[in-house]
Predict the structure.
Amino acid sequence: MANDSLRRLIAELKTFLAAQGEDEFISPAAPLRAAGAVSKGEPTGKPLPKMPEGETLTVEFPKAVSPQSAFKNPASQLTEPPLPAPVVAAPEPARVIPSEEPQMNISQKTAALAELAETIKACTRCPLGATRLNAVPGEGNVNADVMFVGEGPGFDEDRQGRPFVGRAGQLLDKMIVAMGLTREQVFIANIAKCHPMTDPLHPEKHGNDRAPNAEEIACCRKYIEKQISIICPKYVIALGGVAAKALIADAKSLGALRGKFYDLHLDSVTLPRPVKILATFHPAALLRNPGWKKDAWTDLQMVMDELGLKGARK
């Protein structure tokens, strides 16, 4: 009788253990379930048969099955789920170091400046485009070593569509000749490409000139910067405080800027090679204050010395 009970107990325990997975033995509820029910379908709380005294119970536990290997069991009819893709940190974006643009030849410069001039003539980005008679893109040698930049066209320039052709332009021509150059050897332009007027309703009036304001300069800035980048002169001479402060970073007054070369840095384009800029008086200011001509001549001599020009020294 005792042997029958022992065999039945061993059989029931084997059945119970075969039905369990590894997870059941490591959960806190496993001991309670093992003590309470030896097989499915039996009521919880039924006591196990007592083992006769002096008998030894030997039970072979089934090998633990890992959760991953359980998926490979053909009897389970399950397939192993794919492992999650490894997380790879996104590469840092490559640093782009701006390089110098290739320089154009004379034919390319001529074509590029002509195309830009047509764009300027059709421009109406600011109110000056509605009151001008003619836009004034600029003119001169497309391969010039020296470029003069003023603030904006005046009465005569508005009528002819050419820069510096009035009284101030005549004085600029003399300044260029004194340097040992001709007007045809340099390029002349303005920051603003249309005539800023104090009374735009009466463009026929003389003495109707004013300096361009910040909005007008901002609208025209890309044009003068593109011209400088195409021509790529060795030196830009800014004529007057408006032009100087528009082109020289952190510029203050004209008096604080004069007598020194600066590296030219443009906002909208990259220069093919380094360009120096020098600030001096506007010819119109020299007409009003002839005593400043000596200082302006000193400024121009700085460029002459750099280029090895043998102008008329006074």
